[in-house]
Amino acid sequence: MTAFLAVLRRDLQLGVREGGALGTALGFYLVVIAILPLGLGPDLDLLQRISGGVLWIGLLLSSLLSIDRLFAHDLEDGSLDVLMSGALPLELVVTAKAIAHFLVFGLPLVLFAPLLGLMLNFPLPASGVLVGTMALGAPAVSFVGAIGAALTLPVGRGGLLLALLMLPFFIPILIFGIATLNASLGGPGSAATPALILTALTLAALVLAPFAAAFALRVQFRG
Amino acid sequence: MTDVGAPTVSALSVARLSCHRGGQLVLDDVTFRVAAGDAVLLLGPNGVGKTTLLRVIAGLLRPSSGSVTLDGIEAMADPPPSRAFMHIFGPQNGLKSTLTVRENLSFWQRFLGEEDDADACDAALRSFGLDDLAELPVSVLSTGQRRRAGLARLIAVSRPIWLLDEPNHGLDADSRRALADAVRAHVYDGGMSLIATHSEVEAGPVRRLQLGAGQLDVRDADSGVPA
Amino acid sequence: MSDIHMNERTSAAHGQTLVQRFSNPTRFMAWSGRLLPFLSALTIGVIGFGLYAGLIMAPPDYQQGETVRIMFVHVPAAWLAMFTYLTVVVSSVGFLIWRHPLADVSAKAAVPLGAAFTFLALVTGSLWGRPMWGTYWVWDARLTSVLVLFFLYLGLMALRNALEDELLAGKLTAVLAIVGSVILPVIKFSVDWWSTLHQPASVIRLDGPTLHASMLWPLLVMAVGFSLFFATVHLMAMRNEVLRRRLISLQRGRARSGRASTAATVIEG
User: Residue B209: in which H helix or E strand, if any?
Assistant: First the structure.
């Protein structure tokens, strides 16, 4: 447990000290959202109608672009060798790192979303629902993204490749996240069903993704 | 520097070890044994398989055939029991540049040793002459200082087997001496060290294992093993 | 690669099971070489007959008219797109567990074929959709799922392409294929759910189970033909891959002996 918390704490520390990466992710999110009205026209009704989906897609893209270095730094400075030869199972190392990624990147991005929503005429009173549904799905993005980060680790700067590999895997999160959001905001159907499915998906990702990511790492290093 | 209660190993045996990398045979039927109190230099030109050998022993690389045993216990199992017994120190230092030297060390203590031991941390810093640098972020250190800060991990966390890959790289004469002292103290206390290098490490009485270039065999070019 | 040669050595040394005997690369080249001409002829025959049956013998649909004949290509292509993914996953599992190089060869050879079948299914589906829906593309659940499958194939190709070390590339794409096989049903479920949410029952069922026998049997013949086609081309692609790896292995050996002889010259000089 000490070892697990040590990794978590170190990655949080690093995330805070190397704030630039978070700044880049937030900036990217802002630009993605801001460029949309420029492409679609400033029709506030249209923007409001698509705002939920657009905010979700922007969240996915910005989280993915920040996760491709999840293991790369540790590989470059030699930490990964030591992390792999400690007593803590690699699955738990991955889990700690993915949790840290969610806390350092995912959560700030989620909290940033209502602010960006203002630019899309997203109703401000619905901010709580927006943040809530996103917070339910965002951990899955960090965990499934960790698989992509592990798979593309030997490629070097594999950000684009990682997006190609992993974006299809986020379709369920996207669908149920937006469905929960829309239903909570008075759309057709009840919000409980998609919310429960979204939770189930996130829990499944939390449990299964570390195994896949650790396996992908072991396959590369142990041969 | 082996603390009371730290795990000990009296023999590390490598038997008939072969390993392929990228479709090529890198290690071919390597056999040798290291006992507690041994400092072994793995000598040989670049690309001869020294790094591969150390990584296989550390359990970071799966051999094609052969075995590594610690006191007769298979070290290749999954998860490798070797984890609690070995330090691997490679060409990179395993340091985060935005953390201070002390933060880096105490992270490795908690990760590898499950406890944050400030005394061991101080001792480690002292033995590599880093006392005054402890609170500085690694990013402001020189290459040699970073190397020493990385090496301090070996002392901050007590492990009987040290696997060092080109530890002299980037070290000045004083630091080399500090490393040699650390290795000597470690083997004197019943630890063992395997050091891959193409230069010497002045670690006092050592055994030398020559990894040959052509046939990739290990010849025990033995010298002055302490009895 | 040398793994292939290594395996020849080991399986020659030990007693062999039937599977081992067929999966030994040298024997694989031998039996697949003998089988291919028959398989090719059979493929041409069955697909030719299936096309004749589907395009000429089968009656036009009373609602869709002649357009329905796209089905005889579209449906088998969609089936094979999924079956090929199954082949990739089984090969990947085989490669990761038994580390048999031929399993990797099989996975590598199957992926572009799967992508091609998926692409064919999408294109024919879209052509079929034009007269049916009045547009080339609708976000119908089935089409969307096939599109995601296409993305997955693209990802597998891109990952393998990006990795230079072939052994590593094989292992990591195998991991991706297996992860994909776990997530794919979830995606399918999500897309179905999403589609019912957005398009309540307005989708025309293209290939319901209530197909008349006069159309069903040509469809089954075509499905068999497509499967045979896959088997033939997959074997061909695998043979090419084995040969390519041998070539690289020979070139490596050549490079190494070149190095060695230079070294010897230096020593002698």
Answer: strand B207-211
